[in-house]
Amino acid sequence: MAILLVPIVIVVLLIMFVIGIYNSLVGLRNQVANAWSQIDVQLKRRHDLIPNLIETAKGYMQHERGTMEAVTNARSQAMNAKGVAESAKAEGVLGQALSKFLLTIEAYPDLKANQNFLALQEELASTENRIAFARQAYNDQVLFYNNKIQMFPSNIAAGMFNFAKSDFFVIEDASEKAVPKVSFGN
Amino acid sequence: MWEQIRANKRNSILLLMLMAAVLGLLGWIIGMSVSPDPRAGYFGVGVALIIWFILAVVSFAGGDAIFLAASKAVPVTKEVHPQLFDVVEEMAIAAQLPVPKVYIINDPAPNAFATGRNPQSASLAVTAGLLGRLNRDELQGVVGHEMSHILNRDILFVTIAGVMLGTITLLSEVFLRGMFYSSMGRRYSSRDRGGGQAQAIMLLIAILAAILAPIMATLLYFAISRKREYLADAGSARLTRYPEGLANALEKISQNTTQLSVANKVTAPMYIVNPLQKEGMKLSDLTSTHPPISERIKILRGMAGASFADYSDAFSKTTKHATVIPSSALQDDTAVQIRTGSTQPAESAKNQARNIGNIMQQVAGFSILTCACGLKMKIPPNFKASQVKCPRCGTVQPIS
Predict the structure, then answer these.
(1) Residue B257 gets which letter from DSSP?
(2) In this structure, which topology does domain A30-135 adopt according to CATH?
(3) Do B268 and B383 lie in a common domain?
(4) Mutate to test the interface with A, among B1, B84, B89, B96 (most CBs of A within 10 A)
(5) Residues B244 and B372 in one domain
(6) Which of A90, A109, B72, B259 is 20 to 30 A away from residue A56, measured at CA?
(7) For residue B376, what are the β-bridge partners?
(8) Is the residue at B130 inside a domain?
(9) Is the dihedral of CA B94, B98, B99, B102 positive or negative?
(10) Which residues contact A178 (CB under 8 A, 6 or more apart)?
(11) What residues have CB less than 8 Å from B161, skipping those under 6 apart?
């Protein structure tokens, strides 16, 4: 009897071990998905902020209509973009348009003295940071998940249940890597 | 950072057990010194263990509330300081943690701490002096440091350790004072009691233990809090991707000469820099709860990138010691580039002082009334009249 019991116990323990790894892998995969959706949340925040920003700046910057239109157009394109690749590209264009817009502001001291605009500028700086940090957090999560998939012993369970590696968020254009510079003169 | 989190949880339990042993021993010695009957010793142990149990429950359930109250931290809304809230939310995103509750300590000395049982119930407190002095990048560095403490679960450990240390200090103090007063009465009664040499020895041991226990506990507490500071610095650099921000912040904080009035021996290890220093002296490198500030700054400035591996290299180069970063953190780590800082002009000392004053008034509940002539009047919260006369143009303004 005892001899029969030993292999049964070993098999049961092994199954429990695999279940444990499987569950932790599922948890990690969900965290990767969640980290990705966090980026979208922050991008939406950026889109919501732009109309306010343009509206406040309009009265002060008649001569910069082109720069403001570029931002508005880039925004609507980013909002209508379908798919990850297209959306990433459109967001990159929007980021560039925003940093250009913020550079031109330097020439308008009246605007920079506007309390309402200062608050919006802080909002924008924070939003750009949030996007960058959400992307960074996503990459951290992907790394952690991919390491788990490739390392022993969790790689066995990952292979058995077909856990695929996740892709990192990579910014292709080097100029997009720079978060728009927001300066706070006062 | 899983290894660090697990180690912190294990250390928290270990510390609780150790404190139970120390308290029990202290109780036994004090009991035996009162009477040679072994039942007195057991009674002492019993009382000490009951105190320990109450403490353990209190520090788990409300240790953070005790610390926040002891530091006179005020919960604030986003309107009081939008930038602080933005920076805290940004760091919460980077660390993938829930946003902690934000408190401001109305004190002109620059400092910050985090407390709580777990990341879900964490609180973060900064002083008005810190907010008024630091620019956005520097504030981010400090908040990143505190967020790392939350991420690593340092907050639970430090909270428990703090409550325990506080009790041991208190118990010893009570016993020593009790001895002092009762010995004055004993002078008259000792003649008729006679003998009891063993009890006299026991009494001596008890006094010695009561003096040494708080010192030992403090030393232990300080030693374990130092490594955490390095780790939190590394975490801040990793989260913000901008080690220079924290380095600049530490530099500004170290130039400060005002003392944080709400800090004491027990709460000191919680702060980002040691708040206790001699009045009028610079925060020097003689502090023992924290690593020397100059060293921390040097390590941060010596980082080639913003990853844990970069901090580890810079640490070894600066201190000539082996790394402080746990191996699991180095394993789950990618190369992280340092980002460019924002171009915010440095503010004059006068402006910084004005900022601090404004923040302190806002936290205290002052309202700002702008007159038609452009003069801003700050109305204190206890101002009862329904209207105020503008001192410049003389018009009478109603107070809403």
Answers:
(1) -
(2) de novo design (two linked rop proteins) (1.20.1440)
(3) no
(4) B96
(5) no
(6) A90
(7) B370
(8) yes
(9) negative
(10) A99, B339, B340
(11) B15, B221, B224, B225, B269
Closest of B305, B308, B310, B311 to residue B337, by C-alpha: B305
Name the catalytic one among B146, B251, B279, B347.
Answer: B146
Interchain pair B345, A185: CB under 8 A: yes
CB B99 within 8 A of CB B90: no
Neighbours of B350 (CB within 10 A): 8
The alpha carbon of residue B384 and the mean position of all alpha carbons in its chain are separated, in whole angstroms, by 37
Pick the closest to residue B319 from B254, B235, B233 (CA basis): B233
Q: Are residues B101 and B249 in the same domain?
A: yes
Among A31, A137, A184, beta carbon nearest to B344: A184
User: A137 and B95 in contact by Cβ < 8 A?
Assistant: yes
Nearest-neighbour CA in chain B from A127: distance (Å):
8
C-alpha pair distances (Å), B190 with each of A106, B194, B201: 86, 6, 15
Q: Which of B281, B304, B327 is at the close of a domain?
A: B304
- E runs forming strands in B267-395: 367-370, 376-379, 387-389
User: Nearest C-alpha of chain A: how many angstroms from B96?
Assistant: 7
User: Residue A112 corresponds to which tokens in the numbers above?
Assistant: 């920079």
Q: Is residue B133 within 8 Å of B352, Cβ to Cβ? A: yes
SS3 B317: helix
In a domain, B335, yes or no: no
Q: Which of A130, A141, A179 sits opposite B339 (nearest CB)?
A: A179
**How far apart are alpha carbons A179 and A184 in whole angstroms?**
15
Where is the domain boundary, B255, B273, B304? B304
Q: Which residues of A touch B334 (CB under 8 A)?
A: 139-140, 143
pLDDT in tens, chain B (400 residues): 556 677 777 877 787 788 788 778 878 887 877 777 788 888 888 888 888 888 778 877 877 888 888 888 889 888 888 899 999 999 999 998 999 999 999 888 889 999 888 899 899 999 998 998 898 899 999 999 999 999 988 888 877 777 777 777 777 777 777 777 766 555 444 444 545 676 777 778 777 877 777 777 666 666 667 778 888 999 999 999 899 999 999 998 888 777 777 776 667 767 877 776 544 444 444 445 566 788 889 999 998 888 888 888 888 888 887 777 777 677 666 677 777 776 666 777 778 888 888 888 777 777 777 777 777 777 777 777 777 888 778 777 777 6
Our answer to whether residue B146 is catalytic in this structure is yes
